[in-house]
Specification:
By secondary structure, the protein is an alpha/beta fold. It has 16 helices and 13 strands. The strands form two sheets. It has a seven-stranded parallel β-sheet. Helix 7 links the parallel strand 6 and strand 7. The longest helix has 24 residues. The structure holds uridine-5'-diphosphate-xylopyranose. Pfam families: UDPGT.
Length: 453
């Protein structure tokens, strides 16, 4: 039987992007791949590819997806688990009686309920984490009582992690009661994998060497990333043409035409990803900090966030100093020669994209895994600086401006740029033929071939 892998992402932008790219790389190496995507997402985007098939299932929110449930995320998760698991099973049943049945399932660790369903049909299940190895390790060890939050002022370093202070931990380890369903999902996402199971990570060995070694004590853990299309890394890998998916329409021409008129390394790109909501006060401080830095800036402010902005004339001097868009083609922007700094919330995709494209970063973490990613950006990989917050947990305009200058102009900026170039090269090498992630993927394909016999 030919290997046919069913791939199930958690249905949001930051999870579909890496799993789609993974599916594409996998199918280029031989196995057929099918991405299971919710009806809303399949109707909202245009994934055009011969390499990866898409199969729809319903999460009960066919008209809106998770975005329509932002006020009641718990209800969405419940619906995804109950309705989603039924319609997902129907999808499996239909395919199993076809001439090309599934032979394995790769599931996002945010949808662990899929394991029980899939195992009924005798399929091996492989976990895929869309977060860093460090964050995955923290969640696993914390939730199994093997890692405690340090006291204020103290650090912990175990399981291959660098010394971490309390505020470097993912926000959900504080169990402060916010977003209980999402906190539960994050904390429990590594309960399903057993000792010998495959667990794949969107990272690469060189980046997280010590942590991945420790994770191998628990699972058959492998890195297969970064899942950034290689065409953006000056080294085309065969079969790896660009397609990410966008739930929002990127204002591509506007962004690129505007950037084309800016000098090299002159512009700050600002984005907080697909989900984070900033407090109004924070948005205003950020706007005034960008003005104070006196740099050009291209800022993604989603439509739902734009009311929080100050009046344009308060923070954009002249016609051309700043551009606000509701969504951008992020990879193309980061790859543009005009960009000299990425002010980011440090979602894992954005962090990996910044690293892989060699862009120095100002880290402004908000919640979930972002504080941990920001810690690694500054202290471990040396590719940026992390902002300091005041007692109200707001980053003030002076601090924004100081950090941008530190990354773009100050003495330290040389070293940051050197590190950024180093990690860009390392990311590229990991993906090239014979690189660590490429070899790991080959090994995984061998497993798929063997288990489909
Ligand atoms: C979420 C979590 O916040 C993040 O911490 C976790 O690791 C993954 O899921 P999100 O907040 O959306 O993701 O951030 P991120 O992981 O950075 O993903 C955003 C994706 O959207 C990136 O691939 C980025 O390239 C893309 N994007 C963002 C665009 O294409 N255009 C934009 O304007 C902004």
């Amino acid at each position: 039987m030919a290997p046919h892998v069913l791939i199930l992402p958690f249905p949001v932008q930051g999870h579909i992007n890496p799993l789609l790219q993974f599916a594409k790389r996998l199918s280029f190496k031989g196995p057929k791949t099918t991405l299971a995507i919710t009806t809303f997402i399949i109707n909202s985007i245009n994934i055009q590819t011969d390499q990866v098939s898409c199969a729809p299932f319903s999460d009960g929110y066919d008209d809106t997806g998770l975005n329509g449930a932002r006020d009641n995320i718990e209800a969405y998760f419940e619906s995804l688990r109950t309705i989603g698991s039924k319609t997902f099973e129907e999808l499996i049943v239909k395919q199993m009686s076809s001439s090309c049945p599934f032979t394995c399932m790769v599931y996002d660790t945010f949808v662990p309920w899929a394991v029980e369903i899939t195992e009924k049909y005798g399929l091996p299940c492989v976990a895929f984490s869309t977060q860093s190895c460090a964050v995955s390790s923290i969640y696993y060890h914390f939730n199994h009582g093997l890692l405690d939050l340090p006291d204020s002022g103290a650090t912990v370093s175990s399981h291959g992690l660098v010394p971490l202070e309390r505020f470097d931990f993912p926000s959900f380890t504080f169990r402060d009661g916010s977003y209980p369903a999402l906190a539960g999902l994050s904390l429990n996402q590594f309960n399903a994998p057993q000792k010998s199971d495959w667990v794949l990570f969107n990272s690469f060995d060189e980046l997280e060497n010590e942590v991945i070694k420790c994770l191998k004590e628990h699972w058959n853990a492998r890195t297969i990333g970064p899942t950034v299309p290689s065409k953006f890394m000056d080294k085309r890998i065969k079969g790896d043409e660009n397609y990410t998916m966008n739930l929002l329409k990127p204002e591509r021409d506007l962004c690129i035409n505007w950037l084309n008129k800016k000098p090299a390394n002159s512009t700050v790109y600002v984005s907080f990803g697909s989900f984070a909501n900033l407090q109004e006060e924070q948005t205003q401080e950020l706007a005034l900090g960008l003005k104070q830095s006196n740099k050009y800036f291209l800022w993604v402010v989603r439509a739902s966030e734009q009311d929080k902005l100050p009046r344009r004339e308060e923070f954009i001097e002249g016609e051309d100093k700043g551009l606000i868009v509701a969504w951008s083609p992020q990879l193309e922007i980061l790859n543009h020669v005009a960009i000299g700094c990425f002010l980011t919330h440090c979602g894992w995709n954005s962090t990996l994209e910044g690293l892989s494209l060699g862009v120095p970063m100002v880290a402004v973490p908000q919640w979930t895994d972002q504080p941990t990613n920001a810690k690694y950006v500054e202290d471990v990989w040396g590719v940026g600086v992390k902002v300091k917050v005041d007692e109200k947990k707001v980053v003030r305009r002076d601090e924004i401006s100081r950090c941008i200058k530190e990354v773009m102009d100050a003495e330290r900026s040389e070293e940051i740029r050197r590190n950024a170039r180093k990690w860009k090269e390392a990311a590229k090498q990991a993906l090239c033929e014979g690189g660590t992630s490429d070899e790991n993927l080959n090994e995984f394909v061998e497993f798929l071939n063997a288990s489909s016999c």
